[in-house]
Specification:
- The chain is α+β, with helices and mostly antiparallel strands.
- It has 16 helices and 16 strands.
- An 8-stranded mixed beta sheet has the order 1-5-6-11-10-9-7-8. It has a 5-stranded mixed beta sheet with strand order 13-12-14-15-16, with helices on both faces.
- Strand 3 and strand 4 form a beta hairpin.
- The two termini are 51 Å apart.
- The structure holds adenosine-5'-triphosphate and magnesium ion (MG).
Length: 427
């Protein structure tokens, strides 16, 4: 019997996990400078949490969700995205209460699940890092959070990107636009894809997001949301644009961008990158926007929100080889070679001390001959090697060899850990 991982999933192996940790740690570092704190929510939720937030007609809910009935006949779903669960947690744990300083800013990381056709940068289990800021209607938080996304990418030397922004306006702008869109699209109804025919009844805005070629041709001449904005929506959008300019962040306005989820209003944005890793196709790495009705939709008080999510696998594909190699090269501080059983015992005692001092240290556990042990030390890129035999045990002293310089010093057992640390500090 040969077992294989489920289609569309990946194993993150030793050697690769360093890079993942680096990405996650960088998120923590960058986001905390903006006062975002990590939140961890369950990987599965009640089906309705996602249905309510993403919308019944969204691709995520209608086609891509891993939903199932549990043994207690509850309808559950693996999370397809992070925002819904975070909003559910925000409401359930009353993070809107006065003791939480607003805006309440949280970030998350972890696996998401979508039943999709797997291809490069598109999996069934993938990982996202995302952020949410609750409690401010100010366009300034939109710009500040978009800037954070850009700053995060710059930590990975990703400086060539296209930032597309759009506004979906408030509900009044949206309603006027909705009607204009139906008036425009109805004469084309027969030419639209089957999905879009359905969308025309249920959610015409979604047709703007269609991946169908013919749909896209029709949509190219559709009215623009920008002509239907209320004064307030216009002011919000103008302020976001002017702040991005103040922050020296280049952007383009794409009035056909709607995003795949129902919950957005006002500012939405995507950061796209064209790279050989994506077959030179323009690919979205970070996407997000404002969602002023979502907290209420999930049973909380009226609370504005702004957030984004990014695909970690897609980000990984953009990290240059040098950084990857640096991240994945693991080295050992000290290796102890042993000549017999007694020195092997002593080695364990010393290793125990080294590790308590925070040194990465190891020895052979496969009864290798001395030559084999040195080979192992080399393969592990050990910085120092200590050799133990009968004589060393008697004198309670051992030779400590710097593998880079070849220099060797005799050090008493009790001082070995400190000596290694001292010499490492010298490097
Ligand atoms: P797409 O149009 O590519 O399907 P989306 O609109 O469904 O993207 P979002 O729901 O906005 O994507 O998710 C945010 C980010 O998560 C995406 O920009 C992408 O980087 C990543 N992402 C989404 N789906 C997948 C997937 N199946 N595999 C890997 N990454 C994904
Ligand atoms: Mg998708």
């Amino acid at each position: 019997m040969n077992f294989q991982k489920p289609k569309g999933t990946m194993d993150i192996l030793p050697g690769e996990s360093k890079l993942w940790q680096y990405v996650e740690n960088t998120a923590e570092e960058v986001f905390s400078t903006y006062r975002f704190e990590e939140i961890r929510t369950p990987i599965f939720e009640q089906y309705e949490v996602f249905q309510r937030s993403s919308g019944e007609t969204s691709d995520i809910v209608s086609k891509e969700m891993y939903d199932f009935e549990d043994k207690g006949n509850r309808r559950m779903a693996l999370r397809p995205e992070g925002t819904a669960g975070v909003v559910r947690a925000y409401v359930e744990n009353k993070l809107f209460a006065p003791e939480h300083v607003k805006p309440v800013k949280v970030w998350y990381k972890g696996p998401m699940f979508r039943y999709e056709r797997p291809q490069s940068g598109r999996q069934r289990q993938f990982h996202q890092i995302g952020v949410e800021a609750f409690g401010s209607t100010s366009p300034d938080i939109d710009a500040d959070t978009i800037a954070m996304a850009i700053n995060f990418l710059s930590k990975f030397n990703i400086n060539e990107y296209k930032l597309a922004i759009n506004t979906l306006g408030d509900s009044e702008s949206r309603e006027k636009y909705h009607n204009a869109l139906i008036n425009y699209l109805t004469p084309f109804k027969e030419e639209l894809s089957d999905d879009s025919k359905r969308r025309l009844e249920q959610n015409p805005l979604r047709i703007l997001d269609s991946k169908d070629k013919k749909d896209q041709e029709i949509v190219a001449n559709a009215p623009s949301i920008l002509d239907f904005l209320t004064e307030e929506s216009q002011l919000h959008f103008d302020r976001v644009k002017s702040l991005l300019e103040v922050l020296n962040i280049d952007y383009i306005v794409d009035s056909n961008m709607v995003r795949g989820l129902d919950y957005y209003n006002h500012t939405i944005f995507e950061v796209m990158v064209t790279d050989k890793a994506f077959d030179n196709k323009e690919t979205t790495v970070i996407a997000g926007g404002r969602y002023n009705g979502l907290v209420e939709e999930l049973g909380g008080p009226e609370t504005p929100g702004f957030g984004f999510g990014m695909g970690i696998e897609r980000l990984m594909l953009l990290i240059d080889d040098d950084t990857k190699a640096k991240m994945n090269s693991e080295s050992l501080d000290v290796f102890i070679t042993t000549l017999d059983e007694n020195s092997a015992t002593q080695a364990l005692v010393l290793l125990d001390q080294f590790r308590k001092e925070g040194l990465k240290a190891d020895r052979d556990f496969l009864d290798r001959k001395v030559k084999g042990q040195f080979k192992m030390a080399n393969n592990l890129h050990s910085k120092f090697v200590i050799t133990l035999g009968e004589e060393e045990l008697t004198n309670k002293k051992a030779p400590l060899k710097n593998m880079e310089t070849g220099e060797q010093v005799e050090v008493e057992f009790d001082h070995l850990a400190n000596k290694v640390k001292e010499l490492m500090g010298d490097n």
